[in-house]
Amino acid sequence: MQFRVTKPLSGGAPTTIPTSLPGNPAVDALTAMGPPLLSGGTVPGRMVTLNEIGALTPAWRLNLNARPYGDTTEAETLKWNSVEDWYYVNFTPDTHPMHTHLFTFRVMGRYNFDVNGYAAAFGTANGVPQKDVSTLTPFLKSKLMAPPPEETGFKDTVKVNPGQVTVVRAKYVPPAGLGTTTQKYVHHCHIVEHEDNDMMERVTVSP
Predict the structure, then answer these.
(1) HSE-up of 206 (CA within 13 Å, CB side)?
(2) Which of 148, 128, 147 is CA-nearest to residue 139?
(3) Quick one: which of 57, 159, 166, 203 has the most CB atoms within 10 Å?
């Protein structure tokens, strides 16, 4: 596709580049709720672990929370209009672009983390399962590190780096016209080979 721009410009578009962007009240409202639980806050938290099993073997697979995507139970159950922090904990050597359907989120920041220590304490043959967020505290290796400027607006995908806990905050608002009936979605790694090999999880949102 080729775009050809000619003058004079039309359509009412601005002709100068602004020096700042307007604030977003919804983002500001999430930020104003304070820091994550691991930094003394009060927003409820949910852990999501990223696992890689059998790397460099024919049995290679990935998963979230040590569960295959084909598990018949719903792994994440949310409530409409509630707010949560999700703590993505990466136990693999790769950076994963984690993507959510339904909702966008505010990236709250990242902690450096003792991956090997936590895996030794809680790991299984299928990886590290989902635990209470409080279990992360003894294994943190830094204070919360603020996101870079390009991550301070609403996002639907976040880089989850190895050796870190990445925290995002969201409010689960029903899409216009849907109402608050129970609906099902997914969240997953946006690398195609990863989402196709079980780095995906079901989400149910209900009243």
Answers:
(1) 5
(2) 128
(3) 166
Asked whether 44 and 28 are in contact (CB, 8 A), the reply is no
What the block records as the tokens of 54 is 């059998």
- State how far the Cα of 45 lies from the Cα of 68, in Å rounded to an integer: 22
Residue 149 DSSP code? G
CB 197 within 8 A of CB 92: no
* CATH assignment of 25-206, among 2.40.50.140, 3.20.20.10, 2.60.40.420, 3.40.50.1980: 2.60.40.420
Calpha distance 121→134 (Å, rounded)? 14
**Which of 204, 206, 50, 179 is closest to 126 using CA atoms?**
50
Q: Evaluate whether 162 touches 118 at the Cβ level (below 8 Å).
A: no
- Model confidence, pTM: 0.90
Q: What is the pLDDT along the chain (207 residues), one digit of tens a residue?
A: 998 887 776 677 667 777 777 889 999 999 999 999 999 999 999 999 999 998 888 888 999 999 988 776 667 999 999 999 999 999 999 999 999 999 999 999 999 999 999 999 999 999 999 999 999 999 999 999 999 999 999 999 999 999 999 999 999 999 888 888 999 999 999 999 999 999 999 999 999
Segment (H or E) for 158 = strand 157-160
Q: Where are the domains of the chain?
A: 25-206
